Amino acid sequence: MRKAITILGIMGCVMVLATTVWAARYQFVTIGTGGVTGVYYPTGGAIAKMVNRKKKQYLIRATVESTGGSVFNVNALMSGDLEFGVVQSDRGYQAYNGLADWESVGKQTKLRSVFSIYPETVTLIVAEESGIQSCDDIRGKRIAIGNPGSGTRKNSSDALGTCGLTFDDLGAAEGLKASEGSKMLQDGRIDGYFYTVGHPNGSIKEAVAGRIKVRFVPFTNTSTLLGQHSYYANAIIPVDHYPGVTNSGNVNTFGVKATFLTSSDVDENAVYAITKEVFENFDQFTSLHPAYSALTREDLLKGLSAPLHKGALKYYREAGLL
């Protein structure tokens, strides 16, 4: 009996030692995304899956984390709590240059770009019964402006600015996650909600399919805003994605790009491996979501708001993209 226990003990020690050696060989990286109903989360999941398929080659194990969004992801990258994060291009620009949420802490000069992903449009979806059809109708209404730490929060402020409004001009400025907006709208607890997102989007489809009829609000007085901020560009919301919305045609607005960022402290080989897998499985990557359907490889190098990481730079030079 004692001999059997001894053998089992030795086997246990061997297993622990083998697990320790395995863990020591691998580099673990975490990708920060956003809410699970948005596009960030499945994007991060797809990237992790690509890398994990070749974990024995790269000795990298990637995991995905649902987070509060762009501001959270930038701060987590800078603190080392995340290795990679999906971040709106405007938030990346502000962080790198020490603006907006980073004005008090200064420039986040360790922030690095890997690639950009897809355009995101600033979207305000409202209940038809609210009477909101344009900027002139938003004052005094109950609007969800995005949770603190999200890119949507700042975009909603800028969108209201094009109408000559601030959060104080709203009847209520609800700090909800954008993904919670559809339920709140259909429950009649808010008149509308902002969501900076790629289209089509599942949460907005839920809002359109509900009992309460909904519409998108255009933002057209954007020339001053775009002149002040190079990371913004005019955009449209394609209503064909949302049967049942009461708009009769595509809606004019503005937007940013989703970007994949890291820190200069992150290992060059890890950044190189992720960049290579995305670009060499480009067709698979763009099939993930209709928002990616028109992307080209060259598009993934546009709209970057921080310098390229040396690992990404290495791949782009090898591939002749730079």
Ordered list of secondary-structure elements with their pairings:
Elements: H1 2-25, E1 27-32, H2 40-52, H3 55-58, E2 60-65, H4 70-79, E3 84-88, H5 89-96, E4 111-127, E5 142-144, H6 151-161, E6 172-174, H7 181-186, E7 192-197, H8 202-208, E8 214-216, H9 223-228, E9 233-237, E10 251-263, H10 268-280, H11 282-286, H12 310-318
Parallel strand pairs: 1-2, 1-3, 5-6, 5-7
Antiparallel strand pairs: 3-10, 4-7, 4-8, 4-10, 9-10
List keywords for this structure.
single chain, alpha/beta, 322 residues, 2 domains, 12 helices, D-Maltodextrin-Binding Protein, domain 2
What share of the residues does DSSP label as strand, in percent? 15-25%
Number of strands: 10
Which structural category do the helix and sheet elements fall into? alpha/beta
Q: Could you tell me the CATH topology label of the largest domain.
A: D-Maltodextrin-Binding Protein, domain 2
**Cα radius of gyration in angstroms:** 22 Å
In the CATH scheme, the class of the largest domain would be: Alpha Beta
